[in-house]
Amino acid sequence: MHVSVSDIRTASEAALLAHGAGAFPAAEVARAVARAEETGNIICGLYYLESYCTQLTSGRVNGTVEPEVARPKPGVVRADARFGFAQPAFTRALPTVVEAARDVGVATLTVAHAHTCTSLGFFTEQIATHGLIGLGFTNASAIVAAPGGRAPVLGTNPVAMSIPGPDAPLMHADFSTSAVALGKITMAKAAGEAIPPGWAVDAEGEPTTDPEAALKGALVSAGPKGWAFGLLVEVMAAGLTGSVNSLDVKGLKLPDGKPHDLGQTYLLIDPGAHAGRDVMAARLARVADAIAEDGGTGRIPGASRRHLDPVDVPDALWAQVQALADA
Fold first, then answer.
1. Is the overall model pTM greater than 0.70, yes or no?
2. How confident is the model over 166-204, as pLDDT tens digits?
3. In terms of Cα–Cα distance, which of 323, 321, 255 is closest to 59?
4. How far, in Å, CA of 327 to CA of 309, rounded?
5. CA 158 – CA 77 distance, rounded (Å)
6. Helices first, then strands: H and E counts in the chain
7. HEC states along 5-46?
8. pLDDT digit string, tens, across residues 40-78
9. How far apart are CA 314 and CA 311, in angstroms?
10. Nearest of 227, 133, 140 to residue 181 by alpha carbon
11. What is the Cα–Cα distance from 308 to 5, expressed in whole angstroms?
12. What are phi and psi of 269, to 5 degrees?
């Protein structure tokens, strides 16, 4: 099926409303789902919609709660999602934290007690549209073992960053600190495919290419640096927000159980308060030119980001979306 981004958003919103979400949360989550599909991030798009609906019904996520936003210090904004979706909490807090960043030069936003935010880059790119550098951190249910270990300790704990440009981010990156995102393992299992070596270990801590064994075991970090970044994310997402550790979150797509209670922290930097946006852009362009001249495969992340409309959606998945919307 070739489906327009608009239709994806409309159907997603209808599905969320049909399963108990309020109008504002449903609209915000649907916007995130559509954006993920538009940019080819299928793991964070319609692939998650059934889980959202199931967990709305079971009460694992509160679809009607109003987030609480506070600005306890000039450069600090705090949003409490109150066990609801992360997207409406971020949206409610964004105008306040943008104002704070422009007032102070640098500001932080913490989003506490939230459902998984799914695509972290969805949020940092919104920060960039306001002419600000956006850095984001969030944790997830424990699925990553320490180097040489076998017990899951951290989530995939992604980091996202967006550098503002005139019409689109000059640089945009959104990546897990594990060797691979968990969704790629689950999608390989569903497709009956093996996974590459170096992605995961089995329950005994032995390397595996079997996705089912990987899901019973643990993912591995993206090397020692990935492990260190994963620990940093845990501090930023759980420690700064007062949300739970990855260790204390059950599988994100389990239909019922305790709320996710995850956290996100965003850092917003105003280039105009420093050397200026033009200088920043020029310095990045200098690097981009050097990469192009070298002729290798390196690139500035997000510089040639694709935008799909319509989107090629598998028939079975679109049928599921329509069924959810008609429930």
1. yes
2. 999 999 999 999 999 888 898 899 899 999 999 999 999
3. 255
4. 26
5. 21
6. 10, 14
7. HHHHHHHHHHHHHHCCCCHHHHHHHHHHHHHHHHCCCHHHCH
8. 999 999 999 999 999 999 999 999 999 999 999 999 999
9. 10
10. 140
11. 8
12. -125, 130
Alpha helices in 80-181 (DSSP H): 86-104, 121-128
Asked if pLDDT for residue 306 goes beyond 90, the answer is no
Cβ atoms 31, 113 nearer than 8 A? no
What is the distance between the alpha carbons of residues 255 and 219, in angstroms, rounded to a whole number?
22
CB 56 within 8 A of CB 86: no
Q: How high does pLDDT run on average in the chain?
A: 96
Burial 134-168 (b: 16+ CB within 10 A, else e): bbbbbbbbbbbbbeeeeebbbbbbbbbbbbbbeee
pLDDT bin (cut points 50, 70, 90) of residue 327 is confident
- The token pair at 321 is 């979306």
Percent pLDDT > 90 in the chain is: 95
Walk across the sheet containing 152-154 and list its strands: 152-154, 144-145, 218-219, 200-201, 207-208
29, pLDDT greater than 90:
yes
**Cβ-count burial of 195 within 10 angstroms (0-12 exposed, 13-18 middle, 19+ buried)?**
buried
**Residue-by-residue DSSP string for 119-131:** -THHHHHHHHTTT
Do the strands 106-114 and 76-80 form a parallel or antiparallel pair, or are they unpaired? parallel
| DSSP assigned state of 63 | S
Distance CA 5, CA 276 (A): 35
